[in-house]
Amino acid sequence: MAAHTYYPPLEPFxxxxxxxxxxxxxxxxxxxNPLGKPAVFLHGGPGSGTEPQQRRFFDPRAYRIxxxxxxxxxxxxxxxxxxxxxxxxxxxDIEKVREHLKIERWLxxxxxxxxxxxxxxxxxxxxxxxxxxLRGIFLLRQQxxxxxxxxxxxxxxxxxxDEYVSVIPVEExxxxxxxxxxxxxxxxxxxxxxxxRAWSRWEGRTSYLHPNPSLISKTSAEHFAEAFARIxxxxxxxxxxxxxxxxxxxNIGRIRHLPGVIVQGRYDVVxxxxxxxxxxxxxxxAELRVVPDAGHSAHEVGxxxxxxxxxxxxxxx
Length: 317
What we know:
Number of strands: 8
Largest sheet: 8 strands, mixed
Radius of gyration: 18 Å
Strand order of the largest sheet: 1-2-4-3-5-6-7-8
Helix content: 25-40%
Structural class: alpha/beta
């Protein structure tokens, strides 16, 4: 069987802005078939924004493809804002986008932080979801935050890690998450910028099985890093507001009736496979697809194959 790859580049047939309250306005777009099966793409980060290549995971003849930039990033405004910016604000925003576009139900596609948000949304609104396609699973547990931002990934990428921690004084490195948070919320723009670029570049350098210079360049850029680092750190300091009765694994029973595919790179250093494994054990009805030669990025060949294969299969449901 031939491998699946991206669909050809395409332009939106509709773009717009949607005021969602609290001073936030979201950019959204639709591409593909206006009469096709609705699908919403939830980008990662939080804080990374959407990009045109993400439209290409879906057959444009079969799908009505919806992308939007989450609060504070991409083309949404105010840029890099942390005010009224929580997981539950974003879940509410997804519903507002759906209602604005007059969509009854849709396939929900999310990778990395997008998988977190997809699970949170589906568990709150299972009646609005037809299927879930998830990649690079992130459940926002403390062990996952510690692995990537404190010690874990550091033993695999010690060179990149040294650069990441270089902006933090040695005496503060026992709690890097909060040390970065203090700097990313500093009133001094130079302090914020230095910390943001170090935080963002760390993820850029570790996201592919083989280093990707274009991603490293993108994540090192000051404007991108400002929103990406500030919003990520804000969410992670607050554990995504997912503790207690909002824990994603504890609430998996709400969505076990939904068809789902979990795609995971075996060598994902950003979101290690143990989280995908935990999700698959809690949700045995979902199909776990492990890519043997991939890291974290959605754009590695084997991962693209599995993701496009999943959306193709669901296109005919």
